[in-house]
Amino acid sequence: MSTEPDPAESTRNTGPGTPDGEDGVRATESGGDTPATDGTTGEDTSEDAGESTGDDGTAAEVTAGEGAATPGADQAAAQVTEAQAELAAQKQERERIERRKAEKTGPIAAGTKLSGKAADLLAAVRAVEGGAKPTAGVFDDPEPAPRRPAPEPVRHPRPVAAEAAAAPAPAPDAVEAVRRVLADGGAPESLAPQVAAGLGEGAEEVLREDPWQLLRVAGVRPEQADGFARALLGPECAPDDERRGRAMTVWLLEQAALAGHTALELPALTAALAQRSVPDADAAVQSTLAEGEALAFQDALEEPGAAPAAAEGAQEEDDDEAARPVRVLVGLERYALAEESLADALARIVNSLAKEASPHWEAAASGSAAELIRAVAGHGLVLHTGGEAARAEPAALLTAARAQGLRAVAACHTFDGRHRFAALLAGTAPEGADDSVVTLPGLLSGAEGPGRDADGALALDLLVLLDAPQVDVESAAMVAESLPDGARLVLSGDPAVLWSAGPGRVFGDLLAARVCPQVASRTPDPGPLGELVSGLGIGELNQVEAPGKEIVIVPVRDAGEAVHRTVQLVADSVPRAFGFTPGQTVVITPGHGGAAGTRALNAALKERLNPGPGRFGGFDPGDLVVHSPAPGRTVPGRVEKADAEGLHLACADGPVVVPRERVEQSVKHGWALTAHQAVGSRWPAAVVVLPGDAARTLSRPWVYTAFGRAERHLSVVHGVEQALPRAVAEVPAKPRTTRLPLLLRTLVPPAS
Description:
- This protein is an alpha/beta fold.
- A six-stranded parallel beta sheet has the order 6-5-7-8-4-9, with helices on both faces.
- Strand 18 (683-690), helix 25 (700-707) and strand 19 (710-718) form a beta-alpha-beta unit.
- The chain contains 27 helices and 19 strands.
- Helix 20 (527-537) runs antiparallel to helix 25 (700-707).
- Residues 669-717 form the UvrD-like helicase C-terminal domain.
- This is DNA helicase RecD.
- Residues 1-116, 132-172 are annotated as: Disordered.
- Residues 175-262 form the ATP-dependent RecD2 DNA helicase-like helix-hairpin-helix domain.
């Protein structure tokens, strides 16, 4: 039975081909506003990082309602019956709409609204925080050239476990002082709390002495900081100002981190500074290094075809190395130290394990997981690669280890991944192994897993880290440093999926460094979907027989039709054909903005599946949402209610209350996601939307990740024509500049 909602339209039961349709020509690449120089523009990075297509500049999530009611109305509604609350909300909504109409022709009340350049800057900041493209031309009268959309968070990637309590709010006097400085420079005074918190004590003096420090506020762009500096400094403001050069250098390094780089090569950085109208780029970099705001490294380059020198012989080859070519890298301290700490910790793990294999491990080594078990028995660090079906092999390893009395735990990227892996252990794990599968954030925070010993190390003998490609360099450093001497670490994952939202390419770097055993699974993913995804991984978009409607192609002509067909599939066709509820179907699209991005699709899906006024900050009870408790993390959930405490969500990790002031930044509607938000989880059905304007943003890892989210059914809303097979065959992952492979080679001899 076809899942196609309209019998008049043809439905194909083969792999995603290239049906007739208009090939969209408008698209933008991810990576923020980093210049198009080598190393400064990276691939999509995030859940929320950098998958925007189109140039939608709105900051708030699009909803079917008119907006949120006033706090007073919310509190009153909480004290009456549901019916009375609904009537009161409708009345309040009508009154609010009338007030908005009246305000359009009335004067703007002083102190309550922003206008002009201040309003533009505030909109730009909120837009970047929401993942949209910032508003251009805030301070400059001439309209700047179009720029790429800023990446959806993560703006400052941090370890996924870093969910500590929020930092204390700055003192009211400090906020007021910063507010006056912002007003003098024509910036929105509402940014004062962010600036005061970001710059710390004495923020007012810092901002007056160096107005370009405004760039440290997430979402502020160089042209906006330049306008602010001109307003404060007057004739003293100049493009060659040393303070401007330093601020631009740090900002570019932050943008590079958003694109996945832990450092930039010096020529790429100076070229990017030149594009930002910094007259003496070399002097700007040197000033930044002198002030300690960045670090520089000289890494020796390996001769083509030459084997890396052993660590022991390095001293004997000092003269030779002095003549070898080097590359100069510049990076922010936090990422440089994280990479060095990770390399040191991995070297310790490799060298601290006894070399002889345990006879107990050898006795347990049988079946399809034997190769992996034998490798782990004799080595402290092991890499395991494979698709979804290959997760059975780490499950067998974990079962064998716990059967021998070892403290063994598996950590997953998402709660859904944890549940799926735990299901593989059902009926096989020893008694008391309920805590053997955790999420990585929960493990590092102590909320899940065995906890830590007296020395602060994780109380583990074996850690199997699943979804390893999703682990950024800071999180990986925290994991490796937390393991005790003698513990074993297994990194397992599918190297074909999208890389981590945060900076680094840990799993790929370890595979390239070849400093430990690597076990490649020979277990294929089953069925038509498995056959399709396996072909994508090697760059082939194959025609696949799908007798059970496992794969369906829905050709569309434009973005409007793509949205319409997507809603039909989720609300009618897929539930009718397979019995799945709309909540069991995920919609994946390349970006947040645009006519068929997550905002537009979520608005249409909400209107069909859970219509309402959106009186709780744009949300209603029953809305599917995604919650981002920390940059780089996405937790699916459902809205339960809202009250004076905030928005109440039922999430995979339990009930969550999001304070009112955090709702706009950390909660988005969740019927439609980007591939970075969806990676690490799977759904019974997936609808992948490929509008014409997304053609240039597609890559093999993106297509592989999106198509691989479906367990039983995949519908492809196809409007990119030949761009899809071309992306699969010709567009690999964008390279990331990192130092980890070289650091590892100097500490660990190559694996035999």
